[in-house]
Design a protein that fits this description.
Layout (H helix, E strand, L loop, with lengths): L3 H16 L3 H10 L4 H7 L4 H20 L9 H15 L7 H8 L5 H18 L7 H22 L7 H15 L4 H19 L6
Helix pairs in contact: 1-2, 4-5, 5-9, 7-8, 8-9, 8-10
Length: about 210
């Protein structure tokens, strides 16, 4: 049986594409489920911010479960990273329509620090699940490069219309190979910049239309 948090978060995700990732949307969803504002504050004290954290935690738990459901010990590190990234996007498929509004929310000036922190935590989760135990300078460089790839893949995935997201899987494979083989950061940043420009051009006028 789904908890109240799950029911509310799922309804919120359904309404976000139409109404935006906002507190007002969450309040309306709570009203539909007959959840009072005081009770909503108990479920998600920081409202739409905590819904995002809840969804990320839920996704990570599912990814970890699926990843550990098969013998991954023989995989090379690059293949472990590729597999985990593929699982991240596969298990997030139900969020795809809401993600453009979520990204707009995260890109607000007041949310940038939180966004960077979440991105680092996401990369840290992936590296640790793959078995990485580095604690020197490589710890930061690995997570920094993976964060760039994750963002680029996220934007690529939003525009992917290929069968079973095969194009996204190919993008992940080439990008991860780039990290492991030491492709320059500038090249990775250039890819992210062009994809980000494409994303903003597509969705920035969405509300107005």
């Amino acid at each position: 049986m789904k908890s109240k948090q799950e029911k509310l978060a799922n309804l919120f995700v359904q309404d976000v594409p139409k109404f935006g990732w906002s507190r007002e949307t969450l309040l309306q969803c709570a009203k539909k489920l007959k959840i009072t504002t005081p009770n909503l504050a108990l479920l998600f004290p920081s409202f739409e911010y905590d819904v995002l954290k809840f969804l990320i935690a839920q996704n990570n738990a599912l990814v970890e479960k699926n990843y550990n459901s098969f013998n991954n010990s023989r995989l090379k590190i690059r293949d472990k990273i590729k597999t985990i990234l593929e699982l991240k996007f596969e298990t997030n498929s139900y969020l795809k329509k809401a993600l453009p509004e979520m990204l707009k929310f995260l890109l607000r000036p007041g949310n940038i620090f939180m966004s960077v922190k979440m991105l680092h935590e996401n990369s840290d989760f992936i590296w640790k699940l793959s078995g990485d135990k580095s604690n020197d300078f490589n710890y930061y460089s690995k997570r920094g490069l993976l964060s760039i790839i994750y963002l680029a893949t996220l934007i690529y995935w939003l525009n992917d219309r290929s069968n079973k997201n095969i194009a996204t899987k190919n993008f992940i494979s080439k990008s991860v190979d780039g990290i492991v083989d030491g492709v320059s950061r500038l090249k990775q940043l250039g890819t992210l910049r062009s994809l980000a420009q494409s994303f903003m051009a597509r969705y920035s006028t969405r509300k107005a239309s």
